[in-house]
Write a structure and sequence with these properties.
Layout lengths: L2 H6 L23 H31 L9 H13 L4 H19 L9 H25 L5 H16 L24 H29 L4 H20 L12 E8 L13 H20 L8 E3 L13 H14 L3 E7 L7 E8 L3 E7 L13 H5 L19 E5 L2 E5 L8 H9 L4 E3 L12 H16 L2 E4 L7 E3 L5 E4 L6 E8 L6 H5 L2 H28 L1
Helix pairs in contact: 2-3, 2-4, 3-7, 4-5, 5-6, 6-7, 6-15, 7-8, 7-13, 7-15, 9-10
GO molecular function, one term: N-acyltransferase activity
Subcellular location: Cell membrane
Pfam family, one: LNT_N
Amino acid sequence: MSSSVTRAAGNEPADPSAAVRPAAATEPAAPPSARAAETARRQGARLLRPLLAALAGVLLYVSFPPRPLWWLAPFALALLAACLRERRARAGFGLGLLAGLGYLLPLLVWTGEEVGPVPWLALAALEAVFIGLTGLGIALVGRLPAWPLFAAAVWVAGEALRARAPFGGFPWGKLAFGQADGVFTPLAALGGTPLLSFAVALCGFGLYEALRTALDHPRRATAALAALTVVAPVGAGLAARPLVSDAAEDGTAVAAVIQGNVPRLGLDFNAQRRQVLDNHAKRTEQLAEDVKAGRAPKPDFVVWPENSSDLDPYSQPDAYEVIDHAVKAIGVPVAIGAVVSPQTGPLRNTMILWDPVSGPTATYDKRKIQPFGERIPMRSFVRIFNSDVDRVRRDFGPGKDPGVFDMAGSGVGMVTCFEAAFDDAVRSTVRAGAQVIAVPSNNATFGRSQMTYQQLAMDRIRAVEHSRTVLVPVTSGVSAVIRPDGTIERQTEMFTADALVTEVPLRSTETPATRLGPLPEYALLLLAAAGLGWTAARRIRARRAAA
């Protein structure tokens, strides 16, 4: 048979020399020690990414108040990007979940201050799942051109989801809320907390991309684009500074913030509800004496904290008398935080405008009711894990409308405690005519934890976002007066009785963030959807090409 026929039949070896190559020419097997070293190296590499993802979460936590380390947030996200870049979706979820646990377990530890670890662990784990989903999304868009832009939008989408679900959402821990002292902060006045979070995330992901391309000796154009994702958000923050102003547009007012203190810490602080009320009444009467003696300026209005009267003044005459006496003593309108107990229906967490002549007039019912704090969803199921749910014997119900009190000619908008975490609650109050924002709060349940400092930083972001003075009266501290540029003018110590009397600017101009409302967030959600849709389209095309 000719050689051509032999080749056609497939009988000729591809390499003729292979037919005569001795068997001894094959490479020797690696020794057991080398195989063990290689196995250990691979296992170490598999463990490194999870460890780095958890570390990224811890660094993100450390960037939050009370530590002034806001600049750590971009580095934490750069580290997370290094873990997620070009990973599969399932790995992205797992690594994001680990980052979420590293971040939220220490950030939310105060939620178990008096009720034990189960609620804390459950809440942190649930919220970490959302960050896991965010990690999944970042992994999916990580192979796109200009991926840091899409990844930052995916991060904002994750925060938007956390702010709405489940049970009405829990926005605590937004990137924006850790940036009260940061260079990006003025962006809150331009596009609210979504734009501020986006800028921090873009800077972090862009920082990783810039380092990666620099190490890979990229083309100049690629390097310039990567650097732009870091420079652009920083430059935008600096460019937005003219939007931040604390000038008095409608004159000024002298505001007083009362911190009466509580008789004891923890969940049982309100077991002596009359004592809490008396503390705030006495501190107001003491302020009245200081005004008469010339030791303090006379305020135009006074704001008490949330739960400063857990006794319903409408149904309990002694509570009414204590409040009315204190208000008459100071002689100006006072906003009182009370628990109102209708004969039927849910309780109301109410701010009452109390006039020294007319008594109680206008009211505002808190709209964002805290799940598992002021109301207990799935009560019978939750009781299996923690019997403390029965401390909330009667759920609170939400109000419907924003509350702006006319206090001696000043429009003072009420945003009660937990509501300050929600963009729409604060914005609707400003749009309703608030020249000053009041955030009456009750942090006594959380002892001396970092919760009060996290909330104070949140209030500072709201001041910049809407260019309004923010008054923060808290039962046990830290109470504060925050100027429209986000700086703290005065603040109290924790668990002391005190009064802050300060002249504050009245402002009516709406920032772009106030006017635009949720539109910047919607635009970023569309950007995230575009990135995920682009990824899906590329995968479909690749599968068709392979088929």
